[in-house]
Amino acid sequence: MAKNKNTDVPINGLYDEEGKIFTEDAEGTPEGTEAEVVEEETEVSLSQEELYALCRESVCPECDVHKEAEGIRLRALADAENLKKRLLRENEEMKKYAGESVLADLLPVLDNLDLALAHTGGLDDACKNFVIGVDMTRKIFLDAVKGHGLEAVQAAVGAEFDPEVHEAVGTVDQSELGDNQIAQVVQGGYILKGRLLRPAKVMVNKA
């Protein structure tokens, strides 16, 4: 009688396809196999500007991209500084000449006072006090506008004509005056804080 062969099967064991016995590890994964780990891919979306920024931060100083980025940065800083200086300068100039339009509107008052004083010749004694009052009013008014930086342009008969502050409205021929000298002041001129507000209108002698 043939003997039956008893095949011992380990209690905790398994056979693989080749009939070899392998055991399970502590985590329940059969030995001899590799655990496959699948990592989820994370999709990152960056704008073109962000990519350039990352590139500029990562490249070496000698890279052309770095040099270009540094040049752009320096130009931006220079432009910002120039803009700041220009705005400050414009702000200061605006404050300095804030009353220019008001003072320009007051100039006809001075013109009329000057005109009144220019025609005081031959008046009787009864009008002298009136003339003195007009002259005092003119001086007070001129002192008031001087407090705001307004000054009269120097223009007198016999003075040299200066095209920077004088405006020639005509010419005359007077032998007692030299060439290019002022023969008559038609209208006074004024300067506001170093800037010409209105030139003095004069007649110029041409010998």
TrEMBL record:
<feature type="coiled-coil region">
    <location>
        <begin position="73"/>
        <end position="100"/>
    </location>
</feature>
<comment type="function">
    <text>Participates actively in the response to hyperosmotic and heat shock by preventing the aggregation of stress-denatured proteins, in association with DnaK and GrpE. It is the nucleotide exchange factor for DnaK and may function as a thermosensor. Unfolded proteins bind initially to DnaJ; upon interaction with the DnaJ-bound protein, DnaK hydrolyzes its bound ATP, resulting in the formation of a stable complex. GrpE releases ADP from DnaK; ATP binding to DnaK triggers the release of the substrate protein, thus completing the reaction cycle.</text>
</comment>
<dbReference type="InterPro" id="IPR013805">
    <property type="entry name" value="GrpE_CC"/>
</dbReference>
<keyword id="KW-0175">Coiled coil</keyword>
<protein>
    <recommendedName>
        <fullName>Protein GrpE</fullName>
    </recommendedName>
</protein>
<dbReference type="Pfam" id="PF01025">
    <property type="entry name" value="GrpE"/>
</dbReference>
<dbReference type="InterPro" id="IPR000740">
    <property type="entry name" value="GrpE"/>
</dbReference>
<keyword id="KW-0346">Stress response</keyword>
<dbReference type="InterPro" id="IPR009012">
    <property type="entry name" value="GrpE_head"/>
</dbReference>
<keyword id="KW-0143">Chaperone</keyword>
<keyword id="KW-0963">Cytoplasm</keyword>
<comment type="similarity">
    <text>Belongs to the GrpE family.</text>
</comment>
<comment type="subunit">
    <text>Homodimer.</text>
</comment>
